[in-house]
Amino acid sequence: MARQIGLSVERLEDPALLRGQMKYLDDLELPGQLHVAFLRSEHAHARITRLDVTRARALPGVHAVITMEDMERALGRVRMPLSASPTKATAAITPYILSGTEVAFVGEAIAMAIAGSRHIAEDAVDLMEIEYAPLPVIMSAKDAVPDTAPRVRTEASSNVFNRMHVNYGDIDAAFADAPHVFQEDMLQHRGCGHPMETRGVIAEPRMDGTMNVWSSTQMPHDIHQGILEVLGLEDDALRVITPEVGGGFGPKYCAYPEELAIPAAARMLGRTLKWVEDRREHCLTAVQERDQFWSLEIAVEADGRIRGLRGSLIHDQGAYALKAVNLPYNSATAVPGPYMVPALDMRVIITFTNKVPASSVRGAGYPQAAFAMERLMDLVAQRLGLDRAEVRRRNLVPPEKMPYTKPLKARSGAPVTYDSGDYIASQKEALEAAGWDGFADRQLEARKQGRYIGIGLANAVKGTGRGPFESGTVRVNPSGQVSIFTGAAAMGQGIKTTLAQICAEQLGLTADKVTVICGDTVAAPLGLGGFASRQLVTAGNTVLLAATEVAQKAKKLASHMLEADIEDLELLDGKVRVKGSDVSVTLAELARVLRGSPGYAFPPGLDPSLQSDAKWQTEALTYSNTTHVAEVEVDVDLAQVKILRYIALQDVGVRVNPMIVEGQIRGGIAHGIGNALFEQMIYDDEGQPLTTTFADYLLPTAPELPRFETLYRDTPSPINPLGAKGVGEVGTIPVTAAIISAIEDALAPFDIRIQQTPVLPETLFHLISTARARGLPRP
Amino acid sequence: MKQDLTLTVNGVSYTRAVEPRVNLGDFLRHDLGLTGTHFGCEHGICGACTVLVDGATLRSCLMFAVQAQGCEITTVEGLSDAQAPLHPIQQAFRDQHALQCGFCTPGMLLTVVELLDENPDPSEAEVRDAISGNICRCTGYQPIVDAALQAARTLKGGTR
Amino acid sequence: MKAPPFDYHRPQSLPEALELLRGADARVLAGGQSLVPMLNFRLLAPTALVDINALDELRGITIEGGRLSFGAMARQREIERHAGLAEIAPIFAQAVREIGHRQTRNRGTIGGSLCHLDPSAELPMLCVLHDATLTIQSAGGSRRVAVRDFIQGAMSPGLDAGEMLTRIEMEAWPQGHAFAFLEHARRAGDYAMSSAACLLTFDAQGAITRAAICVGGLGDRPARLTHAEQSLLGARPDEQLFAQVAEEVERLPAEGSIHASAPFKRQIARTLVRRALTSACATMVTA
């Protein structure tokens, strides 16, 4: 069997991308397509008192204007369906397909203009006359909690959407006679996903009553289900396709109002409609992770070993829920991270606010959990006068306890079991690479020159490979080329190449002989899609199983044709060969035989097609672990942080394509650095977002980032045949914690404690100024 | 009111009537069907729509098509023919895994073309500065920097 | 995010352009690097754009003796790479490299920067630093105005309807002067939270004989530190003195933004003034 798994195979996706030939959503031009622009709310909370679209309808080039009333007439409903079972589904929580009476965040869609060009559609939006009566606005999740608070939506009986209690162990005993208890409040903000390609939808209603929809999404099957439900179509009457997707990062995980409004309007008008989100719309309407208010207490032994952890978390959900609200559950259950925490008690409050809905951005609540825990580890070290690394080492789950089951349940109901990995060795290796032990001397030396350098570390685990399954069909075509059809979603990460490698290895081929078709609900009617660092694990194992079956079938047929024993056959270079001989038959020939010929029988025991379907299932997550070490320098006069070195060690199991894994890790770190130092969605008190351009919402650019030094430990996961663990989000999880630990270390002479992320220059300026006013640093 | 426009794109001359408010990027994408030039922000920050106009990079969302009257434009489609080998800069991007979703890639490529035209032997810091006006959300930039450095070596070796 | 409709004119001569500008609500389209984003966001909806990119009269940089003359359409990239300018007024290249990115500098112009007037913009700062004189033309005639009178606030150029900025002139400082331009932005190429520029000359004994210091991004326009300039005369480079004169920043108007509050901007400006003076002196020592 030719080795493919473990090789940095060139990506199959690249040539067409490099030549500009790949078709993203906006690159598709359908015959007769019309363009859509949306009128969106200018208020964070208001009643719509008047909407007059007469002038817009009259503008030459405008084909239609559609409002909520039109939508309701056509659909018999105005609200989005729930696309997955939510944490609590009783209240009216989903957004409106179009809003007509009340708006609850700036950017909420109110009406659509449909015209021959996007330019004219936008002209028409400008001609829509709308008046609002402003209603009280709730901007902070904290302010939303009291029962006396004005309602985020007048229909809501409470701003509190849900409360969750995550707990195990005897928390009272853990705190009752603890030698030390430390407390910390933290405000964590994560911004937007900002894939470089924004969202977009095309809907093509066909003469026969069927419809094709293209969407730039991570979840074509969810979109399919949602449109079926709203339009009342039969399954086979709708095909949802994702063209090339220019990045996901979370925002394309949800089904949005536009993804229903466009198909609905297309059906009403009998015209093909295209809508491409512009960047301002992305800032206003695509999900963000935004704010979590944490308050934590940790009880520790005299030597820093953790006895228990308790606290609360208030989560800013925004005006609606597009999907099951999993973020704060992820955060609350992930707090213990790689450490042994005998007792945990987390109370979670999820509140609505007058902001765009929150959902996953790369990391999905895990970075916040890591930040909270790692900040506590630093606090314990500082208060007990211990080395930060040593406190962590004492608490890390040791390798001899693997697999280590926590008294927690994953969303599936399965226990949280860390399946493999050596967390202590991981930390040790990362620290050695970073020169942790010698750093204090370098720091002292730098301070003598007036330079403030610091080092920080953070550990994390990330549950990956979320099930329950992913679909995959492997088929050898009569040409000898192999096709994979899967419900996995390609969104730029290179999953096609990776799946091709897994398949090719089983069939004795190279990856370039495999074509992967994904993002098409006809090609793969069943599937879940892209989220939670899952696709290598779920789709990868599915493809492994399917390809293995195809290989078996090929051998079985070849054994008939070559009159050889199956045990004596091997797959090599596109052939099944009798080992040690030149007697062989090509896979192409075998595929042709199994296509069947009219009236001729198949060899005994063989059924049609050299093809196999698989759906590898899992309830358990497989846990990647990681240790990051950051070295920074702070210019205390400019409140400027420069990252001098960044070391990232991760154990992501078997790396099918190390080059692609490296790409995922680096990209993840860059996203984390954005979260730590640059990215913040800022609103004024009236709920107006102030960071709706790329000049205001800052994504890191090349000069801001250091080279990343990466290290890997490849502990196979014992819970899947491939031994794989997920990687997509892993690089992001510990970054904010590591960087902010390093900043705090650099500013130790100023006695500064950082309790928030991101830490923007303004924040640092205030912290440093306050310290200076206290006479720090002391000469 | 539409105005007549004649320009050369990737060596091919085109004459079209175009509304003045249509920017160069939209014109290339939707009037000429050259969809390799992408829009990431349409307000001049992200650099995805970078093309070469008379040899110099610019953001095609910030220039109206009518302004390109008589200009020679190079887009990503002009770097190498579909049947020909990749341009050395494209090849370097592939070798270094300098693209993931590929959306920022055309703009990055053309920015690196201009950089290496002017400075055949850039330092890492010079590369980072040159691509500072191009946002990539996937790669963390490091492989793009390495690709530019690799391409510089290749091009100096005279394989262009 | 598409521009609203407008009439487009591409005059071939300056008189033709000025004639077109007489029409109501016409805007001049120079490099377009600030105007076009505003059009794309529909923050502006002029009835007509007068594209002055074809006007040869507005191109080029000329240096005669010590006098610098920029056509309004001199591109930032041209200024950055101009050999003569690098010799006689090297602060231009240093400052212009901080403007946006290569792709925007290829299009952006000095005239456009002066008419857009972001308070952090580099070229207006250099004009203020050099006490530049601007030529303003209209169909009715021509006038000259000191840059400090032209800048009337953030995004507020002193232009009447029908007027166009055509030329920017200033005296370069004597050969061998010391200079520095420093700015601090959130990211490379972003508008600075604050910036500082200085020019210095020294006598044979190393005492400062002339000083110009300007800060940007602090208030609604670039501001000279006139007291500091005076205090430095006759003094020798001295870190403590520099820190002391930089305190003048405290007396200047400052406006906060989403990226930096007024006190933070002042802190940055103070730091940069101090560092710019030190850095300028260092260029002298190495020269």
Task: Report what the structure shows.
- The complex is a heterotrimer of chains A (779), B (160) and C (287).
- Chain A has three domains: 136-395, Aldehyde oxidase/xanthine dehydrogenase, molybdopterin binding domain (Aldehyde Oxidoreductase, domain 4), CATH 3.30.365; 396-464 and 619-779, Aldehyde Oxidoreductase, domain 4 (2-Layer Sandwich); 467-617, 2-Layer Sandwich (Aldehyde Oxidoreductase, domain 4).
- Helices cover 29% and strands 26% of the residues of chain A.
- Chain A is built from 20 helices and 29 strands.
- In chain A, the strands form seven sheets. A seven-stranded mixed β-sheet of chain A has the order 3-5-1-12-9-10-11, with helices on both faces. Chain A has a six-stranded mixed β-sheet with strand order 7-15-14-13-8-29.
- In chain A, a hairpin with a 5-residue loop joins strand 13 (288-300) and strand 14 (306-318).
- Chain B has 160 residues and is α+β, with helices and mostly antiparallel strands.
- Chain B folds into two domains: 3-78, Beta-grasp domain (Ubiquitin-like (UB roll), Roll); 88-156, DNA polymerase, domain 1.
- Helices cover 32% and strands 16% of the residues of chain B.
- Chain B contains five helices and five strands.
- Chain B has a five-stranded mixed β-sheet with strand order 2-1-5-3-4, sandwiched between helices.
- In chain B, helix 2 (88-95) packs across helix 5 (142-156).
- Chain C has 287 residues and is an alpha+beta fold.
- Chain C folds into three domains: 7-51, Uridine Diphospho-n-acetylenolpyruvylglucosamine Reductase, domain 2 (2-Layer Sandwich); 58-171, Uridine Diphospho-n-acetylenolpyruvylglucosamine Reductase, domain 3 (2-Layer Sandwich); 178-286, Enolase-like, domain 1, CATH 3.30.390.50.
- Chain C is 33% helix and 23% strand.
- Chain C is built from twelve helices and twelve strands.
- Chain C has helices at 14-21, 35-40, 76-80, 83-88, 91-96, 102-105, 110-116, 122-129, 147-150, 226-232, 239-246, 262-286, and strands at 7-9, 26-29, 48-51, 61-64, 67-71, 133-138, 141-146, 164-171, 178-184, 194-202, 208-216, 223-224.
- In chain C, the strands form three sheets. A five-stranded antiparallel β-sheet of chain C has the order 4-5-8-6-7.
- In chain C, helix 10 packs antiparallel against helix 11 (239-246) and helix 11 (239-246) runs antiparallel to helix 12 (262-286).
- The N and C termini of chain C lie far apart (50 Å).
- Chains in contact: A-B, A-C, B-C.
- The interface between A and B is large, with 52 and 59 residues.
